[in-house]
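[job 4471] stage=fold_predict status=RUNNING
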Amino acid sequence: MRIVKLTEESKKDILKNMLKRSPDNYGTYEATVKEIVENVHQNGDKALFEYTHKFDKADINASNVKVTDEEIEEAYKEVDAELLEVIRKAIKNIKEYHELQKRNSWITTKENGIMLGQKITPLKYVGVYVPGGKAAYPSTVLMNVVPAHVAGVENIIMTTPCDATGKVYPTTLVAAKEAGVTAVYKAGGAQAIAALAFGTESIPKVDKIVGPGNIFVALAKRTVYGHVSIDSIAGPSEILVLSDGSADPKYIAADLLSQAEHDELASAILVTTDAEFANKVSEWVDKFTEKLSRKEIIQKSLDNFGYILLADTLEEGIDVTNEIAPEHLEIMTKNPYDTMTKIRNAGAMFLGEYSSEPLGDYFAGPNHVLPTNGTARFFSPLGVDDFIKKSSIISYSRDALKDVYKDVAKFADSEYLTAHANSIRVRFED
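[job 4471] inference complete, writing structure tokens
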């Protein structure tokens, strides 16, 4: 990996390079995606099935677009029993973690009959998009479905691509069943997002769409936002490791590569204060890369967006970490808990050298749907709050309103909203 001395100039160059991976730079495909979305919006199933045949080579129609109970039963026969047990353990961990995020409605009372509060209501219909195509992603199913289930969503509708024969990955179907999905439909790409957003004859319209996908899926989610809610527009995966040189360089190298293998746009960065340690990590990166199955993707990722940054002090390393605001942050310092308190911007933090990032991807419990491309400065991981809405509650008695009605009317008058003022005064003045 390239080793770069951390300066103001090198930091600016790296941040600029990282932003090239943003979904905001996918403009080349916008017109195509808008055409697909509008076609499905106007023509429903007809357009959806035509695109499925065009892109996935599958003959899908109203009679087979919904995954049947028989298909799910068949999927269970094809999934390794040990893997099924692991999926169930992961669901337990994810559920327990997200149960702690649940909110309750509340009401408080004040003098003269004032009641104020907040009502929590789960969304009724949620659409979960799960990628297919090149690989199966049962972990994506769990991370998007379990918190929705914990929140109390009644209808969790999943779409995922099928192969040319109309078959969905067995692990995806088993994970969906175990996590509590209401229905699974064989649809992928921008056309699936449009179907969820507007509804078709076969696929119900939802209130919110969550889940990752390729460029077309990301742009489609941005296009339909406003008609429905979305979780976020996810960019390529990224990891930053912050180390003072006290950790095992072999572990650091392995963790950096765990994200670099995602795709050529993935980013893997080590920030350290120890030059000798930096060289050892780089050597281990080279050794591991040669042996890994996705070494061509890894190498392109490292060449494009991989860095080892040498900082003069740990404080300088913390500052650049906060500026990058990584999706995944591993803190490998002598006292990672103290270092953590100085981090403002990170999607998920992994503390100590036995808290490897894949724990978060699959098993530990916290959600792996995280803010990318610096959006951890203002976004949070997917969670129960993403599947609820809040309504304010206001109740005043006559006595309570009488005490303040002149104040409210005066405020309305100051904004020249006389009808607002009148709706208050009319209750006490002729």
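[job 4471] summary: The first helix runs from residue 8 to 19.
[job 4471] exit 0
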